[in-house]
Design goal:
The protein is built from six helices and six strands; from the N terminus they run βαβααβαββαβα. The radius of gyration is 15 Å and the shape is globular. Helix 3 crosses helix 4. Strand 1, helix 1 and strand 2 form a beta-alpha-beta unit. It is of the alpha/beta class. Strands 2-1-3-4-5-6 form a six-stranded parallel beta sheet, sandwiched between helices. It is 40% helix and 19% strand.
């Protein structure tokens, strides 16, 4: 499988490289574009300030340019938090997308979004400060109306970015369950 894996608002950190290596070891081709051009951040606030300075349009442009050379191959779009939101936007706009793997995040869905049975898997903390229960319920319904085939996995008590071992949010048990479930998902695509 060809996977485009987008980083979180912390930037392209070791946890993203480790995730890509894990996916490569399972036989996948993985690209990890650096949308922040080498900048990484120690706090979510610093990362969000940088992201806000770039603007949504510039961030999306960088993501599209990173994915464009590979999209003809039929990509699985994946990402962490901000990267998940980016992956979702690209997957819903790419008729060759093979799947969407969302880790710790979702995004708004355009009213006219339409996919034909796109497989989507979301892994998110419960509760999650950025993904409220009401939001996730509405998101799930909108994704279904758009034609996606969605699975949601919730991890009680885990922090927002619970797969990143360098953050306080890290939860080893939830992270391992996420990667095990995601591996099975990717095998079905």
């Amino acid at each position: 499988m060809n996977i485009m894996l987008f980083h979180s608002t912390y930037g392209l950190r070791p946890a993203v490289h480790a995730a890509a290596d894990r996916l490569r070891a399972a036989g996948h081709k993985v690209w990890t574009p650096d949308l922040f051009e080498g900048r990484t951040f120690d706090t979510v606030e610093e990362g969000m300030a940088f992201q806000d300075g770039l603007g949504k349009d510039e961030l999306l442009k960088r993501a599209i340019l990173a994915a464009a050379p590979y999209s003809e191959r039929g990509l699985v779009y994946a990402g962490f938090s901000l990267g998940a939101a980016t992956a979702q936007t690209l997957a819903l706009g790419d008729d060759k997308a093979r799947g969407l793997l969302l880790l710790h995040g979702t995004s708004d869905i355009a009213e006219n979004a339409s996919v034909d049975g796109l497989p989507v898997q979301l892994h998110v903390a419960e509760p999650d400060p950025f993904e409220s229960d009401d939001w996730l319920s509405a998101w799930y319904l909108r994704m279904g109306r758009a034609g996606a085939d969605v699975e949601i996995y919730r991890y009680a008590g885990a922090g927002h970015l619970f797969t990143d071992p360098d953050l306080d949010d890290y939860d080893a048990e939830a992270a391992e369950a996420t990667w095990r479930t995601a591996a099975g998902f990717l095998e079905t695509l």
